Amino acid sequence: MTSIRELAAEPYVSVTTFRRDGTAVATPVWAAPDGEALVIWTPAAAGKVKRIRNDPRVTLRACDLRGNVRGGEAEGRAEILSAEETERVRALLRRKYGLQGRLVILGSKLRRGARGTVGIRIAPAG
User: Fold this and answer.
1) CA 124, CA 79: separation in Å to the nearest integer?
2) Which helix H or strand E contains 120, and what residues bound it?
3) pLDDT tens string 75-107
4) Which of 15, 57, 63, 90 is most solvent-facing, going by the fewest CB within 10 Å?
């Protein structure tokens, strides 16, 4: 079993959320460490946000940009963050991903506005 803390150091993490019928949906995302948890950032209208509201259980694995997974899996519980907490998530991602992170986050703010994305904190399950 891989720890969430280890996964937070990876360039990409595959976050698997679950539909109401139990179907797993995996998505590759950027992630940054946040204590024993990790944080991700996504459009507020993304399917994963809806699925997390319904079921906060997630599984995580290291992956590449295309979502090809490798290594062990970690189980977690996801929490959708407030606007203030989302700004903190953006800062953590900018710090980890450098210039690329700053440019992507700026582009997203210009396209969607400050409230068009949300931060999600994933802590170890249990």
Assistant:
1) 11
2) strand 117-124
3) 999 999 999 999 999 999 999 999 998 898 888
4) 57
Cross-sheet strand order for the sheet of 57-63: 24-29, 12-18, 57-63, 69-80, 117-124, 37-43, 32-34
Domain around 18? 4-124
Question: Which stretches does DSSP call E strand in 30-110?
Answer: 32-34, 37-43, 57-63, 69-80
C-alpha count within 13 angstroms, C-beta hemisphere, residue 106: 8
* Structural domain count, the chain: 1
Distance CA 122, CA 52 (A): 11
Token readout for 26 is: 């995996």
- Position 2 scores a pLDDT of 82
- Return the CATH number at 88: 2.30.110.10
In this structure, what token pair is assigned to residue 113? Answer: 């506005």
Contact 114, 84 (CB under 8 A): no
The two three-digit tokens of residue 118, written as one number:
């949300």
